[in-house]
From TrEMBL:
Biological classification of the source: Eukaryota, Viridiplantae, Streptophyta, Embryophyta, Tracheophyta
Record family assignment: Belongs to the cation transport ATPase (P-type) (TC 3.A.3) family. Type IV subfamily.
Location of the protein in the cell: Membrane
Protein name: Phospholipid-transporting ATPase
Binding-site list for Mg(2+): D331, D335
Topology in membrane: Multi-pass membrane protein
Gene3D superfamilies the record matches: Calcium-transporting ATPase, cytoplasmic domain N (3.40.1110.10), HAD superfamily/HAD-like (3.40.50.1000)
Catalysis performed (reactions): ATP + H2O + phospholipidSide 1 = ADP + phosphate + phospholipidSide 2
Cofactor(s) recorded in Swiss-Prot or TrEMBL: Mg(2+)
Keyword check for Magnesium: yes
Pfam families associated with the record: Cation_ATPase, PhoLip_ATPase_C
Amino acid sequence: SKDPDVVKFLMVMALCNTVVPIKSNDGTISYKAQSQDEEALVNAASNLNMLLTSKDSSGIAEICFNGSKFYYEVLDVLEFTSDRKRMSIVVKEVKSGKFLLLTKGADEAIFPRSCPGEQTKTYLEAVEMYSHLGLRTLCLGCRDLEEDEYKEWSKKFQDASCSLDNREHKIAEVCNSLEQGIHILGITAIEDRLQDGVPETIKLLRKAGINVWMLTGDKQTTAIQIGLLCNLITPESKGQLLSINGKTEDDILQSLERALTIMKTALERKDLAFVLDGWALEIILKRSLESFTKLAMMSRTAICCRMTPLQKAQLVGILKSSGSLTLAIGDGGNDVRMIQEANVGVGISGREGLQAARAADYSIGKFKFLRRLILVHGRYSYNRTAFISQYSFYKSLLICFIQILFSFSSGLSGTSIFNSISLMAYNVFYTSLPVMTIIFDKDISEATVLRYPQILLYSQAGRLLNRSTFAEWFGRSLYHAFVVFLITINAYADEKSDMEELSMVALSGCIWLQAFVVTLDTNSFTCPQITLIWGNFVAFYMINLILSAVPTLQMHTVMWHLCNQPSYWITMALIVAAGMGPVLALRYLRNVYRPSAIDVLQQIEQTDGHAQAPGNLESSTGTYLDYLLTDLRRNKSSIHQPLLSDSASSR
């Protein structure tokens, strides 16, 4: 029909952007854009016969419409910012010399700047309808400019752009002065499809005790629909979404207090979440930060819409300051501040660019990979770090306690029971390789972790690294020191034994015990693990046999002499039996009478080879396992206070 408004609408779709058209050898045109939305709009316009064919370095854009070519000179670009929520360009039609302002942006940024008296009801209804479908909406408009008006404005714009003082604010003011009296042309709606696996990933993370918030720049209605689609919030029949909004500041504060009251009274009965926009957040941060912090700590889910990059970072900062551990994940440049503010930043590399990925601690290709990053790799990393840190203290304390005991028995003479070579090689050679086997260790399989994500609560509650576990390792090192020292002294403290033999027997006892300790605390055995543990054990004897063959060393012939004595091997057997016997007994009794959820899952895996247990075992252990996993969530914040953490709570 060649309706003028329809033609202008398509022209704004094709021109008001920073898209670069690329023409291939066969004549087809593709588009390169920083924003997927802009690329979608240009492609949509081309499908409707408004084809952007070229843009040259001088700013001349060529558009082909129904077989006719039109040329426009792009004079100025009023760039999009999170505060302005709109983008405009000033173009000059080459043929007629007419100046035009083309604008697109959020409805709340465009409608207030429309022509006085313009009917916007139809457009508002369209925006609302599209938002309920979960679509991302933009409002398109244009305005005719007089040449004198443009020249006067252009001078102000150039002055603001060259300003060294408060430049961004001055540019925004100048842009705002031009973006008035806009003629609304229409509304676009873009579907931002969820990636594969997003709902399943969020469901698993929530089951693992992780609170999930969505911080977005979309409209509230669109954000809520997306939240429903990705399992972030539950329907009204099962949950309740508390809205924090209002026309005035007092209304917003009252809705905040009302949401806080409901959250306190109905938390156990319904899956509650709250939703607020950027304007409400700005008021709350100024006047009621304490109440909002309380609400944030009680809510497992929140939807924060129309957020600027700064507000996203502020929200993450509030959660951090309250003692929560935060992870921020995003895929665009507007997520960079949030990612950098969080304890852990994850960037998704994709069509939105690499800004988020480069600013993050971790980079992944798709959102669904987050489940393995946290539940599998994150949990294994925590378990391994917990063991390595505590085992390092254990092996160092063991040799220190033996030296202390020897000092008392020698009348505090200051004589060392170990020679300098043994002390140097103890941490560097004898005990460093076995501990590296932990990088291959998996207490339960990946499939089991993903089937029972609640097991992550063990890590969040500090079950494997806390004061109790550290005291256990401390007590084990003290007990093993007594065992090694007393058995060695009683076996070799006679006139026929010299100091070097006594030293080597005590050192051998330490090496034997540590090999068995690492073996006992290893959950899965692979060829590298077996090689490192027992290969290092063999290497200990080979190194000392070689050193014993050097005539200039004090330990000359010591190891050769000991290895030929049956009493030496009997002593090692006694040390291992006395040292590991009680440890094994306590481990057995705990697994039988007070098994943890991990013990139960290991039993299921050992019986059937994977997470799917046979019917009789599943039925006998299923109820107890469910109780343990439920109890973990119920007592999440009161189990242990983790070491090496700023807070006992983890979110």
